[in-house]
Amino acid sequence: MIIASPLAAWAAEPAPAPLAAAVCANCHGTEGRNEGAIPAIAGKPAFLIAGKLRDFKADKVANATVMPRLVKGLTEAEIDTVAQYFANLR
Q: Is residue 7 assigned to a domain?
């Protein structure tokens, strides 16, 4: 006999966006799915997103405009959380 657990249904729901990711929607689109000149980030591997954010934070990206300023205030944990959030969006 299999009993369906309401927790199993809840676990399948996507996690809410971390507060630090809210600013991303301004340029990357709702849930990171921008279709314009600024790249979509939804579904990209978390390690790539986190690495790029860390590069922006360390001023390692040439010709970057607003990203270095936006990322400066993020902690390492927030970077990882934001990266994982966008990686999980499909």
A: no
In a domain, 3, yes or no: no
Say which residue, 41 or 8, is predicted with more confidence.
41
What is the tally of structural domains in the chain?
Answer: 1
Collapsing DSSP states into helix, strand and coil, what is residue 40?
coil
**Smallest Cα–Cα separation from 42: which of 61, 69, 14, 19?**
14
Instruction: Name the strand (E) or helix (H) holding 11.
Output: helix 6-12
Identify the pLDDT of residue 13: 52
pLDDT value at 9 more than 50: no
Tell me if 29 is assigned to some domain: yes
Percent of the chain residues past pLDDT 90, beyond the cut: 58
Contact 88, 14 (CB under 8 A): yes
Return the half-sphere exposure (C-beta side, CA atoms, 13 A cut-off) of residue 13.
8
Q: Which residue has the tokens 């369906």?
A: 4
Residue 11 in domain: no
